[in-house]
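The methods section describes the discrete structure representation at length, but only in general terms. An entry of this sort, consisting of the sequence and the corresponding backbone structure tokens, reads as follows.
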Amino acid sequence: MTTAGTPPAPVTGPLSGVRVVELAGIGPGPFAAMLLADLGADVVRVDRPGGVGLGIDPACDVTNRNKRSLVVDLKAPEGSERVLDLAERADILVEGYRPGVAERLGVGPQECHARNPRLVYGRMTGWGQDGPLADRAGHDVAYIALTGTLGMIGRPDEPPAVPANLLGDYAGGSLYLVVGVLAALHHARATGTGQVVDAAIVDGTAHLSSMIHGMLAAGGWQDKRAANLLDGGCPYYGTYETADGGYMAVGALEAKFYAEFLRLLGLDGLASARTDWTRWGELRERVAAAFKARTRAEWTAVFDGSDACVAPVLSLREAPGHPHLAARGTFTEHEGITQPAPAPRFSATPATLRTGPARPGADTAAVVRDWGLPAHPTDDCDDLVTDGG
């Protein structure tokens, strides 16, 4: 466990030397800051007294790995000054409040840029900083619903399938925030001028569907679920149940992969069905019946080493043990927690998992020392460090 006064682990990664302030929140903001930390940035998470979030044990919240934490009460008279001291020394600040909240707390872009004109100020929200819904509460499922992306997912005779919070919060939110702040950091270093990055989940998620909108305009995509090549409507791009209740994923789109798929599945007379939509119903039924005849493990063995583009659908607990992922080290174990390893990979400046989840307030003394912060009466925060939620 990282404790106050403990020197930080040696930092590697392409962002080594970049300083980031994260104003604690939940969801896409912490994940974006984790990605920056994984890539080597010195991320200081400003936690609130009493904590935030969904009640997860801080020791298990891997989105706070590779970070350091101090506790600041932004509602206290000296709270905003504490954050501004950090912002003055930072390259990037990330916050995920509703529009106007950071300004009311005295840590908005204007106040931060007055102290540090080079600062990249990243704002993570669902609806964005303006627009009719900007001030409304929301969560991932509502954001992706309005963009049309949620309506694409699932069977046509069932409600749209919710893709956890991966599509909105993390793909449309966190990843776009990271791209935005790094692009703005490049600009700041070239010009000496920082800026505000407005990363809205609705914008990012809509942007993810760019190819689909092109296909829709060209007449190559129907605006309904499970009716298209990539949404489960195509019988050789989807999932099928096996004899033991498992599932196999099929992505045999190209002709040569489709031919290999049929051969290994033991089906004949279906070569022309690939491009004949009138036969897709027949093709789906025969493929489904074939998969139901054997277990997931048996089909995995059949397709092993082939180019049929077929893979078993694994659970979260099963995935780290897959031979390919194990060989690459896609997952790792740190402090007893199995978790995804940092990604992507760099040949010269490898990203590393240096420390476990930051505990609220545990690193105050070290951050004060390393960042050269002014002394503060609440710097000794050892009593805030806990092992539980």
User: Anything to note?
Assistant: The longest strand covers residues 42-47. The longest helix spans residues 166-191. The chain is about 35% helix and 15% strand. Residues 132 and 149 are 20 Å apart (CA to CA).
